[in-house]
Amino acid sequence: MKAQGNPIILAGPTAAGKSGIALELAQVLDGEIVCGDAYQIYEGISLITAAPSDEDMEVVPHHLYGVMPLDTWSDAATYARMSVPVLEEILQRGKTPIVVGGSGLYLDALAWGLNSLPDVAPELREEVGSMSHDRQLLKLLELDPLAYEKIDRANRRRVSRALEVTLAAGRPFSDFRSDWNPGAPRATPLHGWRMPFFVLQRDPLELHERIDRRVEWMFANGAVEEVIAAPHAGATALKAIGFRQIRDHLNGVISLDEAMEYTQRATRHYAKRQRTWFRNHSHDLALDADQNPVERILESLSNGDFAGAACGSGQQ
User: What pTM was computed for the model?
Assistant: First the structure.
């Protein structure tokens, strides 16, 4: 099949099988795969982030995997800015960019752009970062009750970001989120692209089994050594699941078996949050991983279901 005119997004929870399906889709569409994951963009942690294998990367070109130094700060806006030129270059060569990942906010930023956020001075970021998590939450509740209500309060990175923006802008972070605040202006599609947004789904019990097996494989194939080789990871990269658990083991806090068990548990919880995100945010087509997802994507593209449509029609 000839290449499509716009990028395609293939999203879904971790361990759902996105990489394999994207690989098959790329071969049919004369496509190239682009990272849509908050942590797979970092160099040196391909195992604990479950990045595509070297063998997969030899089948079709892959972009933005392992390109960012571990000590570099990143967020959704940074990701969108660095992804757009890559997508443009692929399109200019007549290929189809297939953006693959499970980081919902990052993919939303790429598909729509973000309402303009203020720059955060390093000094302010450091000040917020020095606060305890409880202190950050109390401050966010004081300054932006809507953000406090809507945000994943267990996710320190997101709480920190909301508080940083609130303090830097002098107005609530929720003002910048149209999905939280109906009165906020909606961002517009980047460069006029209409990106079909597909979400891959699996039965939760099956997904949990796949997660557990994958974590076991990671630990058996060098995940601990990967963390040992990354002593200077920055605040963003350190959020990758497995980092803290393996460091706790290396510091003698927990056993290796406990580190693996805690990594499995944290990954299962993360997958649950991902499923909730994609269920509550607009997408075009939900795909059962066991029901010929590639065929369904190709059928939808061939039928022109997305031509000129508003992004995020939420078809099921």
Answer: 0.78
